[in-house]
Specification:
559 residues, five-stranded antiparallel β-sheet, five-stranded mixed β-sheet, Heat Shock Protein 90, alpha+beta, 12 helices, 15 strands
């Protein structure tokens, strides 16, 4: 029974295909054959018209060349009349030959018969001669290279494949374009003996390969234009191919539109099955993506919409639960990192404070005043360090929740930088060089927060700078803003590493190469504080300075 149902379904499809074949494909094929014959006749006429047009164009170019050359010769003749002696005239003609890129020779002959002989002799030499009569009856003769004429006549036809021949009155070939010896001889053999001058005429035995000739009287020339077989094939076959392609596209379009409904129905039902299977496997993000069009049934669109809305609610609840679990995991990791980092960093100053306090409280030994002062200085230094770490830790929640309170006012950068340097007890061999000018414009920022930023950056530079190197502090104006730049020597840092230094608990030296102490929160806090004061912070790593931090703030308006 199943086999019969399946076979019946296939037969219906086959019947639709057969109906489309007889109703669409065969009629369109017959129409294509008729259109192709009409198109071939039209192209044949176009080829004739194109050959006639080229013949007229070459004729016009010959006239232009003759008129231009004649005018030039007339000017030379008029100029010769101003020279009193034959030697002066010859010198003038020699000068023209010397500076002309067109003329090969220029001289004077005594009679037209002499010119005629020169003209006939020049053609076999790939030359052409023109004349202009002088006042004394003699003729000024100019010899051109035939390539000059060829360039002027055929340069507009640079990519045309037609063959063009220009023949003199005595039957000699003056010049040609796309010369073919066999075709040239065939053209001469078929050339009509009597022809009307000035009118292009078609001759030849092949109807799709027209020969056109044009007879000129002044000068007495014959222009032959032949359409080669490859142009005929290309134009006719190209037209035939377009017609066949059009018929094929039209047939396929009909078949495509008829089959589109079935295709869309099948694809969309398959999408429903895939979505149901995905949900059964726990994929709550899978949606039904219909190939929606005018052929898609309304019932399937409605079913897909309701299904996707249901899945959206399920996925929303699932995502919320997943997000909560992720936040709990991150919070647990953050707490672990915080405890590890803080316990490690707080232990050192607390140990120092505890040790030196115990020493001062001992009653069994006598401690001199100098030792007492040293111990108290250490306790004070470690207390200040402990205070700064606690302030850094307390400011993190405010930065993360974007609720950092700042009191913006006009402040002096040089003054705060000097105070920050005094607060930092640099016990290493590194020197802090302050190159900030006292006349630097004031900035608009929170004084305490800005001082915290500068302290963090200088401490960071001192911590990571190479031994016996200087910490350089610059400041200036750039793009109508005031910047402070802190540089320290350090090996070049990759761009990928620089991008991560603003993250929490991220340090330049990793766990395997770590040689300095710190929480890895310095640059994270700096970025949060600077942006809260409408500033900007950038990190660089160059050959001159291995590590550079540059912060920008708005200039305060001066009254």
């Amino acid at each position: 029974m199943e086999f019969n149902v399946k076979s019946k379904r296939l037969k219906i499809v086959e019947q639709i295909a057969i109906v489309l074949f007889f109703a669409v494909v065969i009629p369109m094929t017959i129409s294509g054959i008729i259109i192709n014959n009409i198109n071939q006749q039209s192209i044949r006429n176009q080829l004739k018209a194109a050959a006639e047009l080229i013949a007229n164009m070459v004729s016009d170019e010959i006239d232009v060349f003759q008129n231009t050359s004649s005018n030039e010769l007339k000017q030379i003749v008029m100029t010769l009349d101003y020279f009193p002696t034959q030697a002066a005239k010859q010198a003038y003609l020699n000068n023209i030959i010397k500076h002309s890129k067109t003329y090969k020779k220029i001289f004077i002959v005594n009679s037209e018969a002499e010119f005629k002989k020169i003209y006939d002799d020049s053609l076999p030499k790939e030359e052409i001669a023109l004349k202009e009569q002088l006042r004394d009856g003699r003729f000024l003769v100019v010899i051109f290279d035939i390539s000059v004429l060829r360039h002027q006549l055929f340069s507009p036809l640079e990519k045309d494949k037609r063959q063009i021949y220009i023949i003199s009155s005595n039957g000699e070939l003056i010049t040609s374009y796309n010369y073919n010896d066999k075709v040239y001889k065939q053209s001469l053999a078929q050339l009509p003996k009597n022809a009307e001058a000035g009118v292009p005429q078609v001759f030849g035995k092949i109807k799709n390969q027209p020969f056109v000739f044009l007879k000129k009287e002044n000068p007495e020339l014959t222009i032959l234009v032949n359409t080669p077989p490859d142009i005929t094939r290309r134009t006719i076959e190209y037209g035939r191919a377009k017609i066949i392609l059009s018929v094929l596209i039209a047939s396929l379009t009909v078949l495509f539109i008829v089959g589109l409904y079935t295709y869309y129905l099948y694809i969309n039902i398959r999408q429903l099955f895939k979505a149901i299977i995905a949900i059964s496997k726990g994929n709550y993000r899978r949606r039904i993506r219909l190939l929606s069009s005018v052929f898609t049934p309304y019932e399937i669109i409605f079913l897909a919409f309701e299904f996707n809305r249901m899945i959206k609610q399920i996925n929303k609840s699932y995502s919320k639960l997943k997000k909560t679990n992720k936040e709990l995991k991150e919070l647990n990791e953050f707490r672990s990192n915080m405890i590890d980092t803080v316990s490690h960093e707080l232990r050192t100053p607390l140990t120092s404070i505890q040790g030196y306090t115990s020493r001062l409280l001992r009653q069994d030994i006598e401690i001199d005043k100098e030792t007492q002062q040293k111990s108290l200085k250490v306790i004070k230094k470690q207390s200040e360090r402990l205070k700064r770490m606690i302030e850094d830790l307390l400011v993190i929640p405010d930065i993360e929740d974007s609720r950092l309170n700042v009191i913006m006012d006009a402040i002096s950068v040089p003054e705060i930088v000097e105070d920050a340097i005094l607060l930092i007890k640099n016990s290493s061999s590194k020197t802090i060089v302050n190159n900030i000018s006292q006349d630097l414009p004031s900035i608009y920022a929170d004084r305490d927060r800005f001082e915290q930023v500068i302290i963090n950056l200088i401490e960071n530079a001192v911590k990571y700078a190479e031994e016996d190197s200087d910490i350089i502090i610059h400041a200036g104006e750039e793009n109508n803003k005031v910047f402070v730049e802190i540089n320290n020597k350090y090996p070049l840092i990759s761009r990928e590493k620089l991008k991560t230094l603003f993250d929490k608990f991220t340090r330049i030296d990793d766990k395997t190469t770590r040689t300095t102490r710190g929480t890895g929160l310095g640059l994270f806090i700096v970025k949060g504080l600077v942006e809260a004061m409408n500033g900007e912070v950038r990190l660089y790593s160059t050959e001159e300075y291995g590590f550079t931090v540059k912060i920008f703030f708005e200039k305060a308006n001066r009254e």
